[in-house]
Design a protein that fits this description.
With 458 residues, this protein is mainly α. The protein is 81% helix and 0% strand. The chain is built from 18 helices and no strands. The protein has helices at residues 2-35, 37-52, 61-71, 76-104, 109-137, 141-164, 177-203, 217-242, 244-251, 254-278, 281-294, 298-332, 334-341, 350-356, 360-375, 379-404, 406-431, 444-455. Helix 10 (254-278) packs parallel to helix 14 (350-356) and helix 10 (254-278) crosses helix 15.
Length: 458
């Protein structure tokens, strides 16, 4: 079991580290350079609106399915048809919410056309995540690793062909932002179909499933009730992380939203490192927190605190050194970096980039201590912090965008991220009684003890 888990984690991380930076820094940059800041800003703002509400497409269903299929693999037929019906109903809810918000924002026909395609793309992406949860539940980790990046591989091939075709005289047409969206939808459709085919072959299922054959309202309500606090947290965090281009487009212009998208892109790529480090933290922290809750004496609580401090010490400084070092280097070499990504107009992105890149530091803190607080079940406090961060982000954006445009929005993002990180850090120190020694640089002995803890996280 441990060998399977480590092998699956290795392939998952390797695939994502190779493919996703190529997508972000290769294809997305190429598309923005091809269509221009205004067209890409138009897309990026509406994409973020669709992205903010995508938690409505899942609401914890995938996590529930992973746990249940792992424990009862024989239920996969019943779950597959029953959960597909839930996904379709959630898609209808998602459409109502996103289109209502679009109408309130005064969207016209072009905006609604793009929003319609992006909502379909988000639904397909959510469907793929659900289908992947079946691979995880059945311990088919290599298949899960493949389908975690297959959609991006297909998008890279399709978009790369569309972008390079005119330059190589293969075909001649004007690449538009809608071609970019069509390519995403096509890649998601192919990935979803292939995922379903592989699940059917591995489990001898019939592909002709009736989506509503096993629909159960009590089953759906149980899932929604259990996942509601976590779903709210994801919605709030997605909002304060993704609302900036929406406000930029409303208060400034499509071009400003495009400049922010260009400045934000490298931060998005570097954030992946923080996310990958946090992947093994959740099971470690969850196990430690369960030990703490089940403890009956001061000795057990002391053991918990020592183990937690060892785990935090192992990840805190390495991640901080990476985040601070990367942010400072990127800020110092902002001009050459932006010119490399966006030839002939890189100077447009430099002011916003020099601000937004420092968001990597609070993001790293959030991935550590947000994970710890989530493992400890402190979702109410996290939701309060996330709601306050969202309100703070909106207020600062309203104050700064009219005067500073994309750079003002970058300051708003950094302010919200910093507030969220500091409040989580302070709450973790108070709730888990973390002494100052927790944040000292780890010694060789600390590293050995922490590695043993990670080995035994199951």
């Amino acid at each position: 079991m441990q060998k399977k888990l480590l092998s699956g984690l290795f392939w998952l991380l390797l695939a994502n580290l190779i493919v996703k930076p190529l997508w972000i820094l290769g294809i997305e940059v190429g598309v923005q350079n091809a269509v221009g800041n205004s067209a890409y800003g138009f897309y990026f703002a509406i994409f973020n609106l669709a992205y903010i509400f995508n938690i409505l497409l899942d609401l914890g269903v995938s996590n529930f399915n992973t746990r249940n299929i792992a424990q009862h693999p024989q239920l996969i037929t019943k779950h597959l048809s029953g959960i597909l019906s839930i996904k379709l109903l959630l898609f209808l809810l998602y459409l109502v919410v996103t289109f209502t918000v679009g109408a309130l924002m005064g969207y016209g026909s072009d905006e609604f056309r793009l929003l319609a395609w992006l909502t379909v793309a988000q639904f397909l992406n959510s469907l793929i995540l659900y289908l992947r949860s079946n691979f995880e539940g059945l311990l088919l980790f290599k298949w899960d690793s493949l389908f975690s990046v297959l959609d991006r591989i297909l998008m890279i091939l399709i978009c790369g062909t569309l972008l390079l075709g005119p330059k190589l005289s293969i075909f001649n047409f004007h690449f538009s932002i809608f071609h970019f969206v069509y390519a995403q939808v096509a890649a998601y459709v192919l990935t979803a179909l292939l995922s379903l085919i592989v699940i059917a072959r591995k489990t001898h299922l019939s592909l002709l499933l009736s989506p509503f054959r096993s629909f159960s309202l009590p089953f759906m309500l149980v899932i929604l009730r259990k996942s509601a606090p976590f779903a709210l947290l994801v919605l709030l965090m997605a909002s304060y992380n993704r609302i900036d281009p929406i406000l930029l487009r409303a208060l400034a212009s499509d071009a400003d939203a495009g400049i922010y998208a260009g400045a934000f892109r490298l931060l998005d790529a570097l954030t992946m490192v923080c996310y990958l480090v946090s992947v093994p933290l959740l099971p470690v922290f969850s196990k430690l927190c369960s030990t703490r809750k089940n403890g009956t004496d001061n000795f057990q609580f002391s053991i918990f605190n020592f183990q937690l401090q060892d785990a935090l010490r192992l990840v805190f400084w390495p991640l901080m050194l990476f985040a601070i070092g990367a942010a400072v280097l990127c800020a110092l070499f902002a001009g050459p970096l932006m010119e490399l990504l966006y030839p002939s107009r890189g100077e447009l992105y430099v002011p916003a980039f020099r601000v937004v890149i420092f968001g990597l530091v609070p993001i790293a803190v959030t991935y550590i201590f947000g994970t710890l607080l989530t493992a400890g079940g402190h979702l109410r406090q996290l939701n309060l912090f996330a709601a306050t961060s969202l309100l703070l982000n909106i207020v600062v954006n309203l104050l700064l965008i009219p005067r500073f445009g994309a750079t003002g929005s970058a300051w708003a993002s950094l302010t919200a991220q910093t507030f969220m990180a500091l409040t989580q850090l302070l709450l973790a120190i108070r709730l888990f009684h973390l002494p100052a020694s927790t944040f000292r640089f780890p010694t060789l002995s600390d590293i050995k003890k922490s590695i043993n803890l990670f080995r035994n996280r199951e």
